[in-house]
């Protein structure tokens, strides 16, 4: 259980041929995992996975402004199904590279919940099936890293 309430921003990608119900399940499992730890969260939506790193970066910039909201960490969620987009490999690689650049270069704590799958059925299995609950895993990873930062550095950011 968390000692202090963390404030987490979930950035969810919609589009690229991914069914709305699958995106909903990914987001809902992340929200449930965050709330189970008594943390606060907000959700923003972007038009596709390629926009996830940019939205996280903009949220971080906004948090440094007087009227902005400061977040302890971020959860980036989205799904790509091979064949739904011709740019599948490029989108997956560049999105994860962008998130890693923010993690290392800007010292941001990001739980990455990017589901990549060959078929819609495989995507469902990864989002909400026996193999994994990817949204919740990304949220728990983010919360763990925020907790680690607080423990190691004695600060929240």
From TrEMBL:
GO terms for biological process: riboflavin biosynthetic process. Keywords: Riboflavin biosynthesis, Transferase. Catalyzes the formation of 6,7-dimethyl-8-ribityllumazine by condensation of 5-amino-6-(D-ribitylamino)uracil with 3,4-dihydroxy-2-butanone 4-phosphate. This is the penultimate step in the biosynthesis of riboflavin. PANTHER family: 6,7-DIMETHYL-8-RIBITYLLUMAZINE SYNTHASE (PTHR21058:SF0), 6,7-DIMETHYL-8-RIBITYLLUMAZINE SYNTHASE DMRL SYNTHASE LUMAZINE SYNTHASE (PTHR21058). InterPro entries: LS, LS/RS, LS/RS_sf. This is 6,7-dimethyl-8-ribityllumazine synthase. One of its GO terms (cellular component) is riboflavin synthase complex. It catalyses: (2S)-2-hydroxy-3-oxobutyl phosphate + 5-amino-6-(D-ribitylamino)uracil = 6,7-dimethyl-8-(1-D-ribityl)lumazine + phosphate + 2 H2O + H(+). The keyword Transferase applies. It comes from Phenylobacterium montanum. The active site is at residue 87. One of its GO terms (molecular function) is 6,7-dimethyl-8-ribityllumazine synthase activity. The keyword tRNA-binding does not apply. 5-amino-6-(D-ribitylamino)uracil binds at residues 49-51, 79-81. Pathway: Cofactor biosynthesis; riboflavin biosynthesis; riboflavin from 2-hydroxy-3-oxobutyl phosphate and 5-amino-6-(D-ribitylamino)uracil: step 1/2. It is an enzyme of class 2 (transferase). The gene is ribH. Belongs to the DMRL synthase family. Its EC number is 2.5.1.78. (2S)-2-hydroxy-3-oxobutyl phosphate binds at residues 84-85, 126.
